[in-house]
Amino acid sequence: MRKNITITLVLALLVALVAGCNATQEPQQKRVAQGSYNNGTYTGISDADDHGYGIAVVTVNSDKITKVELTEITEMGVEKDFSTYKYEPSVQANEEMGQRFVDANSAEVDDFSQATSSSNKYKQAVARALEKAKANPAVTTEYFDGVFLGKSAADDHGYGLALVTIKEDKVQAVELNEVTEDNEFKNYNTYPKKEVVDAQQELPAKFVETNGSPVDNVSGATHTTQKWNEAVANALELAQVK
Questions:
Q1: What is the pLDDT of residue 35?
Q2: Residues 25-73 pLDDT 10s
Q3: 238 partner at 20 to 30 Å CA-CA among 5, 25, 39, 141?
Q4: In CATH, which of 3.90.1010.20, 3.30.420.10, 1.10.10.10, 3.10.450.750 is domain 40-133?
Q5: Where are the domains of the chain?
Q6: CA distance 12 to 76
Q7: Alpha-carbon distances of 176 from 5, 87, 189, 213, 228, rounded to whole Å
Q8: Cα dist from 161 to 73, 87, 107, 153, whole Å
Q9: Are strands 146-151 and 53-61 parallel, antiparallel or unpaired?
Q10: What does the pLDDT average to over 192-200?
Q11: What does CATH list as the number for 146-239?
């Protein structure tokens, strides 16, 4: 009798252990209250840093994340080409993290090993996309707080970039740059046209004063001013909550 009881207990313990192992192997999906999100596809943009920013295109259906597409934009404002990118952990993170978000039904997933920067950008981008999808948004401002990289259209001389810091719908700081027709950052220390150099130094404060609205063209740097007006407007567009 005791032998039968012992065997039964051992079998029960083994079943519990196997079930526990299986449970830890399966991703735990975050439970979301019914009606939390509106169905649709939403784009989230992460903060920008010296290496660019992340983009997440998130599809939501019946409060479930059904698809996530991830992209990174470089510090020059162009899409990163992962088919030629040499740092393998970032390539793998781009390929695999989308499914992690789907499996977790959340922006809260583990960082991808050796690709922490990309992971954080993707997580913030997914979180912002989900905020846009919420039936009752927690963010009530026009813009997300953060740092956003805007880009102008390009011409034969290159294009303008604007790194815009926003807090509580106020432009706090602006950094301006240009990329030349040779796809290099313009060196204002050696650039011969004084009007452009002066504009690059003086216009950030004016954009703060106008809260990102277009500023007057600078004499002798009209085209450059127009590019920066366009780049700042693009940064504000990327920062929009809705």
A1: 81
A2: 345 566 566 789 999 999 999 999 999 999 999 999 999 999 999 999 9
A3: 39
A4: 3.90.1010.20
A5: 40-133, 146-239
A6: 60
A7: 77, 28, 14, 15, 7
A8: 13, 25, 29, 10
A9: unpaired
A10: 97
A11: 3.90.1010.20
